[in-house]
Design brief:
Structural class: alpha/beta
CATH superfamily of the domain at 3-159 and 187-216 and 273-291: NAD(P)-binding Rossmann-like Domain
Shape: globular
Number of helices: 11
Number of strands: 13
Radius of gyration: 19 Å
CATH topology of the domain at 3-159 and 187-216 and 273-291: Rossmann fold
Largest sheet: 7 strands, parallel
CATH architecture of the domain at 3-159 and 187-216 and 273-291: 3-Layer(aba) Sandwich
CATH class of the domain at 3-159 and 187-216 and 273-291: Alpha Beta
Strand content: 15-25%
Helix content: 40-55%
Distance between the termini: 37 Å
Protein backbone atom coordinates (compact mmCIF):
# COMPACT_ATOMS: atom_id res chain seq x y z
CA UNK A 1 0.00 0.00 0.00
CA UNK A 2 1.42 3.37 -1.04
CA UNK A 3 1.71 6.17 1.50
CA UNK A 4 2.52 9.85 1.00
CA UNK A 5 4.49 11.37 3.88
CA UNK A 6 5.17 15.11 4.02
CA UNK A 7 8.14 16.19 6.15
CA UNK A 8 8.72 19.82 7.14
CA UNK A 9 12.22 20.88 8.10
CA UNK A 10 13.25 18.08 5.78
CA UNK A 11 16.77 19.36 5.11
CA UNK A 12 17.77 19.68 8.77
CA UNK A 13 19.24 17.19 11.22
CA UNK A 14 16.10 15.14 11.96
CA UNK A 15 14.67 15.47 8.45
CA UNK A 16 17.81 14.28 6.69
CA UNK A 17 18.21 11.33 9.05
CA UNK A 18 14.54 10.37 8.84
CA UNK A 19 14.51 10.47 5.03
CA UNK A 20 17.71 8.37 4.81
CA UNK A 21 16.02 5.66 6.90
CA UNK A 22 12.42 6.01 5.72
CA UNK A 23 13.10 6.13 1.98
CA UNK A 24 14.07 2.44 1.54
CA UNK A 25 10.71 1.26 2.92
CA UNK A 26 8.41 -0.04 0.15
CA UNK A 27 5.43 2.04 -0.89
CA UNK A 28 6.60 5.27 0.76
CA UNK A 29 6.40 8.52 -1.20
CA UNK A 30 8.20 11.38 0.56
CA UNK A 31 7.71 15.10 0.03
CA UNK A 32 10.26 17.24 1.87
CA UNK A 33 9.78 20.94 2.60
CA UNK A 34 12.52 23.27 3.86
CA UNK A 35 13.42 26.95 3.46
CA UNK A 36 17.21 26.69 3.61
CA UNK A 37 18.56 26.95 0.03
CA UNK A 38 21.94 25.24 0.54
CA UNK A 39 20.57 22.39 2.66
CA UNK A 40 17.58 21.93 0.35
CA UNK A 41 20.01 21.61 -2.56
CA UNK A 42 21.99 19.05 -0.56
CA UNK A 43 18.82 17.07 0.16
CA UNK A 44 18.03 16.98 -3.57
CA UNK A 45 21.57 15.84 -4.33
CA UNK A 46 21.53 13.02 -1.76
CA UNK A 47 17.97 11.89 -2.57
CA UNK A 48 17.21 12.91 -6.19
CA UNK A 49 14.22 10.59 -6.34
CA UNK A 50 12.13 12.40 -3.71
CA UNK A 51 10.12 15.59 -4.19
CA UNK A 52 11.71 18.57 -2.43
CA UNK A 53 10.00 21.95 -2.02
CA UNK A 54 11.94 25.04 -0.98
CA UNK A 55 9.56 27.29 0.97
CA UNK A 56 9.28 29.45 4.08
CA UNK A 57 6.41 27.93 6.03
CA UNK A 58 5.85 31.12 8.00
CA UNK A 59 4.61 32.67 4.74
CA UNK A 60 1.52 31.72 2.70
CA UNK A 61 2.36 29.89 -0.49
CA UNK A 62 1.81 27.00 -2.87
CA UNK A 63 3.66 24.71 -0.46
CA UNK A 64 0.28 23.98 1.14
CA UNK A 65 -0.68 22.00 -2.00
CA UNK A 66 1.87 19.36 -0.94
CA UNK A 67 -0.56 18.26 1.78
CA UNK A 68 -3.20 17.27 -0.75
CA UNK A 69 -3.77 13.49 -0.44
CA UNK A 70 -1.02 13.19 2.20
CA UNK A 71 -1.43 10.21 4.53
CA UNK A 72 0.65 11.82 7.27
CA UNK A 73 2.88 14.77 8.06
CA UNK A 74 6.01 15.06 10.19
CA UNK A 75 5.95 18.55 11.70
CA UNK A 76 9.64 19.02 12.20
CA UNK A 77 10.78 22.53 11.23
CA UNK A 78 12.51 24.39 14.05
CA UNK A 79 14.64 27.45 14.72
CA UNK A 80 17.33 26.13 17.06
CA UNK A 81 20.04 28.78 16.98
CA UNK A 82 20.19 32.49 16.27
CA UNK A 83 20.27 35.88 17.94
CA UNK A 84 16.87 37.32 16.92
CA UNK A 85 13.71 36.37 18.82
CA UNK A 86 11.62 37.03 15.72
CA UNK A 87 13.39 34.20 13.86
CA UNK A 88 12.29 31.76 16.55
CA UNK A 89 8.72 33.06 16.58
CA UNK A 90 8.35 32.82 12.81
CA UNK A 91 9.81 29.32 12.40
CA UNK A 92 8.55 27.67 15.59
CA UNK A 93 5.15 29.32 16.08
CA UNK A 94 3.89 31.14 12.97
CA UNK A 95 4.97 28.34 10.62
CA UNK A 96 3.26 25.78 12.86
CA UNK A 97 0.02 27.77 12.78
CA UNK A 98 0.17 27.76 8.97
CA UNK A 99 0.91 24.04 8.80
CA UNK A 100 -1.99 23.15 11.10
CA UNK A 101 -4.33 25.32 9.01
CA UNK A 102 -3.14 23.57 5.82
CA UNK A 103 -3.63 20.12 7.38
CA UNK A 104 -7.22 21.03 8.22
CA UNK A 105 -7.89 22.28 4.70
CA UNK A 106 -6.51 19.08 3.15
CA UNK A 107 -7.89 16.78 5.89
CA UNK A 108 -4.52 15.27 6.77
CA UNK A 109 -5.44 12.28 8.98
CA UNK A 110 -2.32 12.10 11.16
CA UNK A 111 0.89 13.93 12.07
CA UNK A 112 4.00 13.55 14.19
CA UNK A 113 5.10 16.68 16.03
CA UNK A 114 8.75 17.06 16.97
CA UNK A 115 8.72 19.08 20.16
CA UNK A 116 11.69 19.26 22.55
CA UNK A 117 12.69 18.31 26.08
CA UNK A 118 13.28 22.00 26.73
CA UNK A 119 9.55 22.48 27.28
CA UNK A 120 10.03 20.80 30.67
CA UNK A 121 13.39 22.41 31.45
CA UNK A 122 14.32 25.51 33.46
CA UNK A 123 16.02 27.20 30.52
CA UNK A 124 14.59 30.60 29.50
CA UNK A 125 15.95 31.35 26.04
CA UNK A 126 14.20 32.13 22.75
CA UNK A 127 14.23 28.47 21.71
CA UNK A 128 12.66 27.25 24.96
CA UNK A 129 9.95 29.91 24.99
CA UNK A 130 8.91 29.39 21.37
CA UNK A 131 9.02 25.56 21.50
CA UNK A 132 6.81 25.75 24.61
CA UNK A 133 4.38 28.02 22.76
CA UNK A 134 4.49 25.65 19.79
CA UNK A 135 3.56 22.65 21.91
CA UNK A 136 0.67 24.55 23.50
CA UNK A 137 -0.59 25.21 19.98
CA UNK A 138 -0.30 21.52 19.08
CA UNK A 139 -2.13 20.56 22.27
CA UNK A 140 -5.13 22.51 20.99
CA UNK A 141 -5.31 20.40 17.82
CA UNK A 142 -7.88 17.81 18.86
CA UNK A 143 -9.39 17.19 15.42
CA UNK A 144 -6.31 15.54 13.90
CA UNK A 145 -4.68 12.42 15.33
CA UNK A 146 -1.10 13.03 16.36
CA UNK A 147 1.81 12.14 18.58
CA UNK A 148 4.11 14.64 20.31
CA UNK A 149 7.75 13.60 20.75
CA UNK A 150 10.06 15.54 23.09
CA UNK A 151 13.64 14.57 22.28
CA UNK A 152 16.65 15.66 24.32
CA UNK A 153 19.94 16.89 22.83
CA UNK A 154 20.43 14.92 19.61
CA UNK A 155 23.44 13.86 17.62
CA UNK A 156 24.02 11.87 14.47
CA UNK A 157 24.63 12.26 10.77
CA UNK A 158 24.28 15.84 9.44
CA UNK A 159 24.66 17.37 12.93
CA UNK A 160 25.88 20.90 12.15
CA UNK A 161 25.49 22.42 15.61
CA UNK A 162 25.89 20.34 18.74
CA UNK A 163 28.19 17.32 18.84
CA UNK A 164 28.83 17.53 15.11
CA UNK A 165 30.20 21.06 15.37
CA UNK A 166 32.21 20.17 18.49
CA UNK A 167 33.74 17.19 16.69
CA UNK A 168 34.75 19.32 13.69
CA UNK A 169 36.13 21.98 16.01
CA UNK A 170 38.47 19.33 17.40
CA UNK A 171 40.11 19.11 13.97
CA UNK A 172 40.52 22.87 13.58
CA UNK A 173 42.15 23.83 16.86
CA UNK A 174 45.11 22.61 18.91
CA UNK A 175 43.13 23.14 22.15
CA UNK A 176 39.55 22.04 22.86
CA UNK A 177 37.99 23.90 25.85
CA UNK A 178 35.51 22.42 28.32
CA UNK A 179 33.66 24.96 30.51
CA UNK A 180 34.35 24.56 34.22
CA UNK A 181 34.79 21.00 35.46
CA UNK A 182 32.52 19.58 32.72
CA UNK A 183 30.38 17.77 35.31
CA UNK A 184 27.08 18.59 33.61
CA UNK A 185 24.79 15.60 33.14
CA UNK A 186 23.66 15.08 29.56
CA UNK A 187 21.32 12.52 28.04
CA UNK A 188 22.25 12.64 24.36
CA UNK A 189 19.76 11.01 22.02
CA UNK A 190 20.91 9.33 18.84
CA UNK A 191 18.90 10.80 15.99
CA UNK A 192 18.90 7.40 14.28
CA UNK A 193 16.83 6.10 17.21
CA UNK A 194 14.49 9.09 16.97
CA UNK A 195 14.04 8.42 13.24
CA UNK A 196 13.05 4.85 14.10
CA UNK A 197 10.56 6.16 16.69
CA UNK A 198 9.02 8.54 14.13
CA UNK A 199 8.77 5.70 11.62
CA UNK A 200 7.06 3.49 14.20
CA UNK A 201 4.63 6.31 15.01
CA UNK A 202 3.75 6.68 11.33
CA UNK A 203 3.26 2.95 10.88
CA UNK A 204 1.13 2.41 13.99
CA UNK A 205 -0.54 5.85 14.30
CA UNK A 206 0.62 6.18 17.89
CA UNK A 207 -0.90 9.09 19.85
CA UNK A 208 -0.02 10.89 23.05
CA UNK A 209 2.96 12.88 24.33
CA UNK A 210 6.28 11.17 25.02
CA UNK A 211 9.58 12.35 26.48
CA UNK A 212 12.24 10.75 24.31
CA UNK A 213 15.46 10.97 26.30
CA UNK A 214 18.76 9.31 25.73
CA UNK A 215 18.77 6.24 27.96
CA UNK A 216 22.41 6.70 29.01
CA UNK A 217 23.41 9.59 31.26
CA UNK A 218 26.92 10.96 30.83
CA UNK A 219 28.82 14.03 32.03
CA UNK A 220 29.53 16.55 29.29
CA UNK A 221 33.29 16.33 29.85
CA UNK A 222 33.21 12.53 29.69
CA UNK A 223 31.19 12.67 26.47
CA UNK A 224 33.77 14.99 24.90
CA UNK A 225 36.57 12.63 25.92
CA UNK A 226 34.65 9.69 24.43
CA UNK A 227 34.27 11.52 21.10
CA UNK A 228 37.95 12.44 21.26
CA UNK A 229 38.89 8.77 21.73
CA UNK A 230 36.75 7.71 18.74
CA UNK A 231 37.85 10.33 16.18
CA UNK A 232 41.41 10.88 17.48
CA UNK A 233 41.75 14.57 16.52
CA UNK A 234 44.79 16.77 17.03
CA UNK A 235 43.16 18.96 19.70
CA UNK A 236 44.19 18.67 23.33
CA UNK A 237 41.34 18.87 25.84
CA UNK A 238 41.63 21.66 28.45
CA UNK A 239 39.26 23.12 31.04
CA UNK A 240 38.39 26.84 31.04
CA UNK A 241 36.64 28.77 33.82
CA UNK A 242 32.97 29.24 32.98
CA UNK A 243 33.22 33.04 32.96
CA UNK A 244 36.11 33.04 30.51
CA UNK A 245 34.26 30.63 28.24
CA UNK A 246 31.10 32.81 28.34
CA UNK A 247 32.98 35.98 27.37
CA UNK A 248 34.76 34.21 24.52
CA UNK A 249 31.39 33.14 23.10
CA UNK A 250 29.99 36.65 23.62
CA UNK A 251 32.86 38.23 21.71
CA UNK A 252 32.67 35.59 18.96
CA UNK A 253 29.01 36.47 18.40
CA UNK A 254 30.02 40.08 17.77
CA UNK A 255 31.90 38.96 14.66
CA UNK A 256 29.62 36.11 13.54
CA UNK A 257 25.94 36.81 12.84
CA UNK A 258 25.00 33.13 13.12
CA UNK A 259 27.33 31.56 15.71
CA UNK A 260 27.09 27.76 16.04
CA UNK A 261 27.27 27.97 19.84
CA UNK A 262 25.94 30.94 21.83
CA UNK A 263 26.06 32.20 25.41
CA UNK A 264 22.39 31.19 25.80
CA UNK A 265 23.23 27.63 24.82
CA UNK A 266 26.16 27.64 27.25
CA UNK A 267 23.86 28.80 30.03
CA UNK A 268 21.44 25.97 29.19
CA UNK A 269 24.32 23.48 29.03
CA UNK A 270 25.43 23.99 32.63
CA UNK A 271 21.96 23.75 34.19
CA UNK A 272 22.14 20.62 36.41
CA UNK A 273 19.10 18.70 35.29
CA UNK A 274 18.04 15.37 33.88
CA UNK A 275 15.02 14.51 31.77
CA UNK A 276 12.36 11.85 32.28
CA UNK A 277 13.17 8.38 30.96
CA UNK A 278 10.34 6.22 29.71
CA UNK A 279 10.42 2.76 28.18
CA UNK A 280 10.25 4.08 24.63
CA UNK A 281 11.90 0.91 23.37
CA UNK A 282 8.75 -1.04 24.27
CA UNK A 283 6.25 1.69 23.37
CA UNK A 284 7.62 2.15 19.86
CA UNK A 285 9.23 -1.29 19.42
CA UNK A 286 12.63 0.33 18.82
CA UNK A 287 16.00 -0.84 20.14
CA UNK A 288 18.14 1.94 21.61
CA UNK A 289 21.59 2.13 20.05
CA UNK A 290 24.35 2.06 22.73
CA UNK A 291 26.02 5.46 23.04
CA UNK A 292 29.50 4.39 21.98
CA UNK A 293 28.10 2.49 18.99
CA UNK A 294 25.98 5.48 17.98
CA UNK A 295 28.94 7.87 18.21
CA UNK A 296 31.05 5.56 16.06
CA UNK A 297 28.33 5.35 13.42
CA UNK A 298 27.90 9.14 13.53
CA UNK A 299 31.55 10.03 13.07
CA UNK A 300 32.98 7.06 11.16
CA UNK A 301 30.21 6.00 8.76
CA UNK A 302 31.46 6.43 5.18
CA UNK A 303 28.09 7.40 3.71
CA UNK A 304 27.21 10.47 5.72
CA UNK A 305 29.84 11.12 8.40
CA UNK A 306 31.53 13.83 6.34
CA UNK A 307 28.36 15.47 5.04
CA UNK A 308 27.94 18.84 6.76
CA UNK A 309 24.80 20.97 6.62
CA UNK A 310 25.06 24.72 6.17
CA UNK A 311 24.27 27.03 9.10
Amino acid sequence: MSQKIVITGAAGLVGQNLIARLKPKPGIRIVGIDKHPANTALLRKIHPEIEVIEADLSQPGRWTDALADADALVLNQAQIGGLSEQEFIQNNVTATENIVAAMRVHRTPYFVHLSSSVVTSRANDFYTKTKTAQERLIDSVSDIGHVVLRPTLMFGWFDRKHLGWLRRFMDRTPVFPIPGDGQFIRQPLYVGDLAAIITSSLEHRITGTYDISGLEQIHYGEMIRLIHAIVKPKAKIVHLPYGVFWWLLFLYAKFNKNPPFTTCQLEALVIPETFPVIDWESIFDVRATPLREALKETFLDRRFADVVLDF
